[in-house]
């Protein structure tokens, strides 16, 4: 009981800190929003060039390129909604470094709070927040279509199970990246080093995933790499539920399972590193 | 009365070579205020960190409230309070939220928490600012909040690490008044580190003087001052005067004469009476004096007596600071924490 109370008090603290730091929330959303309103709009004409083809050929080409999505922008917007799971978890590790610098972590380590309490609270708070932010980005992507710009066009019917799968995919992706960033936060002492490492992770993760590229246009080696990328796994769950699963080789749960595998590995790594960092100094 | 803290041969070495604490042994009785006095780098904070299970000893062992600091670290943390020398309260939370968080972490019953938090805010004069973010607090308010966080669970032993560092004299006096009141009310044992001699003298029932990681003297402030043997007259001659030392030793009432930095420290029961005789002896020898000063027994004198050097409150970085710096420097070169 006392463990649950410690953990919930620490989680409340984390959520309060997140809520009281709007600039961090804006920064988390900046990259996906810039991609939505600039990059995506710039490439939105990519599939309209197929309009000159006969309808049957056009559909075939679209299905091959963007796996049943109605247009490139919709396909890409789903990728950006998923990518929020990466950008919005970035600050959980930075907060650890600032807590080290300000002595707050030292204070927590001097209380009966265990490494599990301290890590668990940050992990849960850091994983819940991106789900809310991902739905904000989803809302924006839908809204853009009503503002005379390219927007997300959902073509599959929304079901409870489908909505749950979308939430779980973003949550598990966030959990995985929160574990990764917490591991970095507990092992790195300087904010500059942390942000350099995080930048060295973020962009390669995005560029080796299927979040941006039309699947059918990717070279086969990149398809192979992307098929194991956790962002791809989460985004495929979103796309299946947004546009249907006809052109996907596996059902949504298959991708979810792969994502859970990633999360378990990162969670185990984080548990090891955080326990070591919070143990009495040897 | 039982011992609340027992340390035997407690040691801590950093990076295999920097000995921050070198085999200290002492005990603190229940309900006592016990001080560790020493300059920066003496090993005070390192000792305190080992006693509070924040740092593992590399030698010896210690118990606090009967619990081994290594093997019962978790249980130990529930029974002790710790006030750090720097502010560790969460700046993005209010004072009340910080206290509620600490209460939850230390297992204060949920139903008792609001009353306990309000009581502490009142006692530490923080009630009016309880719902403001800590980032808006003054230095004195942060110190008081730090103390409130340290005692929210009514610990049996309270550790204070340089608790009044950076406070003005009025703030320091107020802080110690609160500690005295707490001790009177609850009978908690207090272990504090300080490099303020007046604090150690006025606050501690007993104290240990630590220098270069070793305890060089311990006892009550009165006992330590008694060991000086009365007043100390410092005689500073101009130039070399080898004949002066035996002449001073021969004066009636002189206990001892030692030479430090070209000056003679003369211990005697009454300096007022001795000074004219010292001046007379120097005149007879033809020795010119640059100055003669009288110091009543104080912890400054005690420190000088046992360490052989003047007490300075700002003596460079601590051994821990140096070790942490070296570790960070080496790790930075390797690109890790």
- Specify Rg of chain A, calculated over alpha carbons: 20 Å
Give the oligomeric state.
heterodimer
**Could you tell me the radius of gyration of chain B in angstroms?**
24 Å
CATH architectural grouping of the largest domain in chain B? 3-Layer(aba) Sandwich
The main β sheet of chain B shows up as: 6 strands, mixed
N- and C-termini, Cα separation of chain A: 30 Å
How much is the average pLDDT of chain B?
A: 86
- Beta percentage of chain B is 25-35%
Main sheet of chain A, how many strands, which sense, barrel?
Answer: none
* Number of helical regions of chain B: 12
Written as H for each helix and E for each strand, in order along the chain, the element string of chain B is: EEEHEEHEHHHEHEHEEHEHEEHEHH
Low-confidence runs of chain A: none
- How many helices of chain A? The count is 12
Shape of chain A: elongated
> Which blocks of ≥5 consecutive residues of chain B have pLDDT under 50?
315-337
Strand content of chain A: under 5%
Number of strands of chain A: 0
**What percentage of residues of chain B falls in helices of 4 or more residues?**
25-40%
Describe this structure in words.
The complex is a heterodimer of chains A (282) and B (337). In chain A, 74% of the residues lie in helices and 0% in strands. Chain A contains 12 helices and no strands. In chain A, helix 1 packs parallel to helix 7, helix 5 (90-101) packs antiparallel against helix 9 and helix 8 runs parallel beside helix 12. Chain A has helices at residues 2-19, 22-42, 55-66, 72-87, 90-101, 104-109, 115-144, 160-187, 191-207, 220-228, 230-243, 252-278. Chain A has one domain (2-278). Chain B is α/β, with parallel strands linked by helices. Chain B is 38% helix and 26% strand. In chain B, the strands form 3 sheets. Chain B has a 6-stranded mixed sheet with strand order 6-7-8-3-9-10, sandwiched between helices. Chain B has a 4-stranded antiparallel sheet with strand order 2-1-4-5, covered by helices on one side. The two termini of chain B are 45 Å apart. The interface between A and B is large, with 34 and 38 residues.
């Amino acid at each position: 009981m006392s463990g649950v109370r410690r953990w919930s008090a620490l989680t409340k603290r984390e959520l309060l800190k997140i809520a009281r730091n709007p600039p961090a929330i804006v920064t988390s959303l900046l990259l996906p929003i810039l991609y939505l309103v600039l990059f995506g709009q710039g490439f939105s004409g990519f599939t309209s060039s197929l309009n000159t083809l006969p309808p049957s050929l056009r559909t075939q080409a679209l299905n091959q390129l963007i796996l049943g999505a109605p247009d490139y922008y919709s396909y890409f917007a789903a990728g950006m909604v998923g990518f929020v799971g990466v950008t919005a978890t970035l600050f959980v590790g930075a907060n650890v470094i600032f807590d080290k610098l300000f002595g707050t972590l030292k204070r927590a380590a001097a209380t009966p709070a265990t490494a599990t309490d301290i890590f668990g609270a940050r992990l849960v708070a850091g994983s819940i927040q991106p789900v809310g932010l991902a739905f904000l980005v989803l809302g924006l992507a839908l809204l853009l279509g009503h503002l005379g710009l390219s927007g997300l066009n959902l073509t599959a019917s929304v079901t409870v199970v489908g909505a749950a799968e979308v939430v779980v995919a973003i949550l598990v992706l966030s959990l995985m990246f929160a574990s990764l960033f917490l591991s970095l936060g507990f092992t790195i002492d300087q904010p500059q080093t942390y942000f350099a490492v995080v930048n060295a992770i973020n962009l390669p993760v995005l560029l080796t995933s299927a979040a941006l590229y039309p699947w059918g246009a990717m070279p086969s080696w990149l398809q192979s790499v992307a098929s194991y990328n956790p962002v791809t796994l989460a985004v495929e769950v979103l796309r299946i539920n947004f546009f249907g699963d006809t052109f996907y080789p596996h059902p949504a749960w298959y991708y979810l399972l792969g994502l859970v595998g990633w999360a378990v590995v990162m969670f185990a790594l984080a548990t090891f590193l955080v326990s070591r960092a919070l143990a009495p100094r040897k | 009365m039982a011992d609340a803290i027992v340390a035997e041969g407690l040691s801590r070495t950093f990076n295999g070579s920097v000995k921050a604490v070198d085999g200290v042994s002492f005990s603190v009785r229940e309900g006592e205020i016990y001080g560790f006095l020493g300059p920066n780098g003496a090993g005070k904070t390192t000792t305190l960190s080992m006693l509070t299970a924040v740092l593992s000893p590399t030698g010896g062992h210690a118990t606090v409230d009967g619990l081994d600091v290594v093997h019962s670290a978790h249980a130990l943390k529930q029974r002790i309070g710790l006030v750090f020398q720097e502010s560790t309260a969460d700046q993005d939370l209010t004072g009340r939220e910080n206290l509620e968080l600490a209460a939850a972490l230390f297992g204060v019953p949920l139903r008792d928490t609001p009353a306990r938090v309000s009581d502490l805010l009142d006692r530490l004069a923080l009630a009016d600012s309880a719902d403001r973010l800590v980032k808006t607090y003054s230095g004195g308010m942060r110190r008081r909040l730090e103390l409130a966080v340290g005692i929210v669970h009514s610990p049996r032993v309270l550790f204070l690490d340089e608790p009044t560092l950076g406070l003005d004299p009025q703030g320091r006096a107020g802080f110690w008044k609160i500690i005295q009141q707490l001790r009177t009310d609850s009978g908690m044992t207090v272990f504090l580190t300080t490099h303020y001699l007046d604090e150690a003298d006025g606050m501690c029932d007993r104290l240990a003087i630590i220098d270069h990681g070793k305890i060089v003297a311990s006892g009550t402030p009165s006992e330590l001052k008694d060991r000086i043997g009365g007043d100390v007259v410092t005689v500073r001659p101009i130039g070399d005067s080898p004949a002066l030392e035996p002449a001073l030793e021969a004066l009636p009432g002189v206990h001892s004469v030692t030479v430090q930095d070209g000056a003679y420290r003369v211990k005697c029961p009454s300096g007022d009476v001795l000074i004219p005789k010292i001046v007379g002896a120097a005149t007879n020898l033809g020795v010119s004096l640059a100055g003669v000063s009288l110091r009543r027994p104080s912890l400054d004198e005690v420190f000088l007596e046992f360490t052989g050097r003047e007490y300075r409150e700002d003596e460079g970085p601590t051994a821990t600071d140096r070790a942490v710096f070296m570790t960070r420097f080496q790790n930075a070169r390797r690109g890790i924490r």
